[in-house]
């Protein structure tokens, strides 16, 4: 497979960077081809401005429409185009970052904001005129794995932990970005307690990462309900006979709650 590994950490000697290097080596040992976008090392600009789309400074910016026009006209900045080309090239995508304030570092969020523009990752229509999203889109056929580290110990990210379950914390990324754009999203790998890691803990984390990477092409993805799977009405609301009387994020996974 062709694998794009996007890493977001400002310290090249960090656990994140060390694991990314080890993960790349593991993938290459398996015969995969790996390209890395190290956002801090690249000096990635995370800020969306009208300049990205050739917008005049005194012109009101409508980000979606302006980005779509620039995308269709081939007018996006070279750094954005390069990342979009990497995504088209990739059979699998690994996003790796430390969990900061329950989300991605700003530089990675900015990578998504600038790269996943309208016309490329959303606002795309199929031959039938219907919008491609939630299980269908530019990342259709792409496997996606999120690898994140956090300082809190594992129990606080469990089903009853005070921090919330990791699947819920990452739902905007897993479901609202990656699955929205069509990817097959694998269960995330959370390396909890990273601030307290000993050398033995780090070694176990490397083995856990290698194990997950060995299943990158074969592990079952999260069972998110696709938009066109017959589970939603015309307003994209889950049909009443599915998970009756229930709400929340879990209802959008077919394996979480009984139909």
Automatic annotation (TrEMBL):
The record's InterPro entries line, in alphabetical order, gives: Flavodoxin_fold, NAD(P)H_dehydrogenase_qn
Query: Keyword set for this entry?
Result: Oxidoreductase
* Organism superkingdom: Bacteria
Chain ranges of the Flavodoxin-like fold domain: 1-212
Q: What is this protein called?
A: NAD(P)H-dependent oxidoreductase
Record organism: Pseudonocardia oceani
């Amino acid at each position: 497979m062709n694998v794009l590994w996007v890493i977001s950490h400002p310290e090249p000697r960090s656990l994140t960077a060390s694991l990314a290097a080890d993960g790349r080596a593991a993938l290459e040992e398996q015969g995969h081809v790996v390209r890395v976008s190290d956002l801090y090392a690249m000096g990635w600009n995370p800020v969306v401005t009208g300049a990205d789309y050739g917008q005049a400074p005194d012109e009101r910016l409508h980000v979606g429409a302006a980005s779509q026009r620039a995308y269709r006209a081939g007018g996006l900045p070279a750094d954005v185009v390069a990342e979009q080309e990497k995504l088209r090239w990739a059979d699998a995508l690994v996003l790796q970052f430390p969990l900061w304030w329950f989300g991605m570092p700003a530089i990675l969020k900015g990578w998504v904001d600038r790269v996943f523009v309208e016309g490329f990752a959303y606002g795309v229509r199929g031959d039938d005129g219907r919008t491609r999203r939630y299980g269908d889109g530019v990342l259709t056929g792409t496997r996606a794995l999120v690898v994140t580290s956090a300082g809190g110990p594992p129990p606080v990210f469990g089903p009853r932990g005070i921090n919330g379950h990791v699947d819920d914390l990452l739902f905007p990324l897993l479901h609202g970005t990656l699955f929205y754009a069509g990817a097959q999203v694998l269960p995330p790998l959370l390396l909890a307690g990273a601030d307290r890691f000993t050398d033995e803990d780090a070694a176990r984390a490397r083995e856990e990462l290698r194990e997950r990477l060995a299943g990158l092409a074969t592990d079952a993805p999260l069972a998110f309900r696709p938009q066109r799977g017959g589970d939603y009405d015309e307003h994209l609301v889950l049909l009443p006979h599915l998970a009756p009387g229930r709400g929340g994020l879990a209802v959008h996974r077919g394996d979480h709650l009984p139909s």
